Amino acid sequence: MLGPVILAASRSDRMRRLISAAPVTRQVVDRFIPGETVDDIVPVVEDLTGKGLDLTMDVVGEDITTPGQATVARDAYLELIDRIKDLELGPRVEMSVKLSMFGQALDDGHDLALTQVRPVVEAAAAIGTTVTLDAEDHTTLDSMFAIHEELRKDFPETGCVIQAYLFRTESDARRLAADGSRVRIVKGAYKEPASVAHQSRHEIDKAYVRILKTLMEGDGYPMIGSHDPRIVSIAQELARRAGRKPDEYEFQMLYGIRSEEHLRLAAEGHRMRVYTAYGTDWYGYFVRRLAEKPANLRFFLRSMITRG
């Protein structure tokens, strides 16, 4: 029951100030967000790829308030792509972007977000990689899917994310599976009302499996975003039944969570991609990681007590 409360805190300025000011918070945040700058993150990229893992990179930030901030977000990703190019790791490292960071919620935000994200997609393609559009709350999804469709006209490898807890997602998955796009499926990490989303873990898990089955049986490239051992096992079985080879789907897990499982899956021959975030505007991302799993919250509270 704590999950919805924590997710509400992700939108609270008061909680943002309180948690951000806590002396031990930064030490705990480092578990999930291993740096604030490109220079911080380069050794992490080299270490993970050296272990046989792929990455998807997220420059954290969202809910911007000016078009100028959207330009800053664009430039941050372009800087990251330049560094990945220098490392000659383009095919191993893709980008994940939140369109809210590119101005989606501002006046004329749909067109602004498309204009600002396109150069990032172009630059990623130039170094042999791609971009995945992250899903945010349900009110943003029609715009996200429209931008995804527009970008795929020139960059068909552009991916998107669907969230199993939303009622609409089973229909979205059928459309996307037939379309041949790259689709990451996650359970969902935003506070959504009962009118649009499943509220119980059991129903979310059942929806996840139904949607994943649709993706595995379709023509697209499924990306399984989950740390749940049951989901991982079910995904492998669904892939086997669908006749998919190991390079025809992938697993994705967050940096700092079940790291040994990352290595195990990679050692078994699976493509294992680590979702790695960095940057200074880490609060919203961090709080959603706490809400996703009670163990994350217990880790945070225990660290607050022992390190405080």
Features:
13% strand
Could you walk me through the main structural features you see in this protein, from its secondary elements to its overall organization?
The chain has 308 residues and is α/β, with parallel strands linked by helices. It has 13 helices and 8 strands. The protein has an 8-stranded parallel β-barrel, surrounded by 7 helices. Strand 5, helix 9 (201-217) and strand 6 form a beta-alpha-beta unit. The chain is globular and about 45 Å long. The two termini are 26 Å apart.
Q: What is the helical fraction, as a range of percent?
A: 40-55%
Give the SSE order as H and E letters.
HHHHEHEHEHEHEHEHEHEHH
Structural class given helices, strands, pairing?
alpha/beta
Helix count, per DSSP? 13
Contiguous uncertain segments of 5+ residues? none
The gyration radius over C-alpha positions equals 18 Å
Number of strands: 8
Overall geometry: globular
Bin the strand percentage.
5-15%
State the strand order across the main sheet: 1-2-3-4-5-6-7-8
Taking the sheet with the most strands, its summary is: 8 strands, parallel, barrel
